[in-house]
Amino acid sequence: MIENRFARRAAALSPNFPASHFPGELDEGVIPFDSGFAAPQLLPDLTGFADDALTTWREETLQYSPPQGQPELRGWLAGMMNADGCALSAENILIVNGAKHGLELVCRLLIDEGDAVVVTAPTYFTAIPIFRSFGVEFVEIGQDADGLLVDDLERALAERRAEGKPAPKLIYNVADFHNPSGATMPEDRRRKLLEIAVREGIPVVEDTPYRRVRFEGDHVPSLKALDTTGIVFHLGTFSKLVAPGLRIGWVAAEAPLIARLIQLKSDGGSSPLVQRIIYEFARSGAFPAHVERVRALYRERRDAMVAAVRRELPGATLHVPEGGYYVWVTLPSHVDGDGFAARAAAAGVNIIAGSKFFATPGREWPANMSSPRNHVRLSYSYATVAQIEEGVKRLAAVYAPVEA
Amino acid sequence: MIENRFARRAAALSPNFPASHFPGELDEGVIPFDSGFAAPQLLPDLTGFADDALTTWREETLQYSPPQGQPELRGWLAGMMNADGCALSAENILIVNGAKHGLELVCRLLIDEGDAVVVTAPTYFTAIPIFRSFGVEFVEIGQDADGLLVDDLERALAERRAEGKPAPKLIYNVADFHNPSGATMPEDRRRKLLEIAVREGIPVVEDTPYRRVRFEGDHVPSLKALDTTGIVFHLGTFSKLVAPGLRIGWVAAEAPLIARLIQLKSDGGSSPLVQRIIYEFARSGAFPAHVERVRALYRERRDAMVAAVRRELPGATLHVPEGGYYVWVTLPSHVDGDGFAARAAAAGVNIIAGSKFFATPGREWPANMSSPRNHVRLSYSYATVAQIEEGVKRLAAVYAPVEA
Prior knowledge:
Two copies of one chain form a homodimer.
Chain A: H1 5-13, E1 31-32, H2 47-55, H3 58-61, H4 71-82, E2 93-96, H5 99-110, E3 116-121, H6 127-133, E4 137-144, E5 147-148, H7 150-162, E6 170-173, H8 187-200, E7 204-207, H9 223-226, E8 232-237, E9 249-252, H10 255-263, H11 272-282, H12 286-312, E10 317-318, E11 326-330, H13 337-346, E12 349-350, E13 352-353, E14 375-379, H14 385-397
Parallel strand pairs in A: 1-12, 3-4, 3-6, 6-7, 7-8
Antiparallel strand pairs in A: 2-9, 4-5, 8-9, 10-11, 11-14, 13-14
Helix pairs in contact in A: 2-11, 12-14
């Protein structure tokens, strides 16, 4: 009696999700390289801001509030993005319950069942079930160390046109410190991506969870900063910069599109209490100091992870990410990522097999793309340097398949 | 380029929404009888609970957390519902971002485009656009002082069957202190509703925002408490009992259905910070005292509103609600609710015309149902007793249409 197409799709999907290991659920001694949890050492002291929010601002923070979000927080976000090259106002910002909520709303605005969407191969795995729940066809485009292969995208769009297929409805990408590949697109490739998108009339959804977690290297403008036509929906989040438990993100887009997204929101808006806490923290002196601590600690852990992998996993290759939370490891051809991840779990280290990051893992791959099963993703955000060293040693012990 | 069917529907809907007047946006001197804001005097002091949540529980409250919600809060909610006649465990509870979010998830589970849903006439107006965004057909069933007319429901279902139409996919109802009608269904009518639902295999969605805001009268079991077959999805919220700004509600249903709803959630879960604050408040001694204060203050305001309407608006009739936030006023036939609401706004009182609460306002109504345009809804939750008296006096001055 209760099956509908959404439910059927969700049921079909679930085995595909990587298992979630929340910190409180980890078995003693297990080392989590699997998920993008915040380093506990970096969770900020928000008590003073909460106290202020619940006293001075009580009639705002505990009452219903406008669905677009707290105006001062929206203004602050527009200012932060403008300092990063954009030209936005509070009108261009919609507060959402995390970037995934923003992605879902953009899908609700743009996608009808059967539409195609462009994603990278590999792509952010949590985006995959969101897209699938809308019944999309995936157009997967490979990456190199500079991110999405724009020439391949151009070719794929031309092929679709030649076959009489409609253009995809959006291009989804993580241009900074890509999850999972770690790649950052240089400015010229970003400009080329936007040129294609504008020419073909395909909206670009830029997901930027790690943008402000840069360790080194040159600043590269965001796609939104390079966007002169309003074709970019920019997704942001406080999860990676302040704390995941806040569940607050934002969408930046043209004001008329923001107005449409608000109409598609039926959740009564994000909590004004949490928005006020974030706003008071963000505009305080504690915030820039916090961001520096975030960068310094994750840089240290990235360095430890890269060194350990190079030392302990012979034949594995990686491109050192300039920021973010993850190292994408390409395995030698005799090591299967799925088997390796299973052996690692048995040895007390949670890692995620590369195949989980491909929207259609069973497909045939072109010669210039490595197989989905040839990778693992290692997160260095939650484990300490000592755990990283111990964990990669455990990985080394189960790296090669046991002889039968 | 960016229209899809959701967006087209949302655009078509928006003129139908009553205007939102958030407390901070009200013009000086305007009296708001329009929306279900909490009385500012009742917003609790949560500073101690927030401080605890952000220190003792920091690694839980600022980290990612399980999408089903905080286990202790789910256990507490199951216990509260069990004290109210249910037989649930934490497994049966899903934490959501307010009851509207729960309703949307249930729609995602049950509804395909073109399906029918049963709603009351009138019904909760914010539910209307949520249902419409799923492309439903409405089956509207009238109410009397005892709520949904179950005989009319039975007749409507039989007529659909005779016409070869499929059964509706769900029955949506507010059985306690209905918004807007104020009616509470007696136990025998609830049993009859469930009997029909079970016989026809139609899930019932019970929305209970006001259930614990009872002023007087006998306790009536919830539909979930009377549900022996698992056919009821129960929606709850802390908005009316603690504070709307928390944006936390819950769905109670059979565990396998909860598991399916979790698969349909893509928002990363509700904020563990807010969940911990609520849980610590709810299990403290402050909570029962708070609930008593809520009941006492709204009872006083209900009394003031009922007395003022009886005194000032000749020919208007109302059924005194035993709880909740609203008085549903039936106007004499020469007073049109839409015109009255417009005149009231000009006189500095915001009220909502009854027609806004009907899913298909333009339809022909059977003889036993009063016209959608023959009512207004007056909220007494936010205005003080003095404002209620002044506001109803202003309403009296613009009650009858001005002679041309």
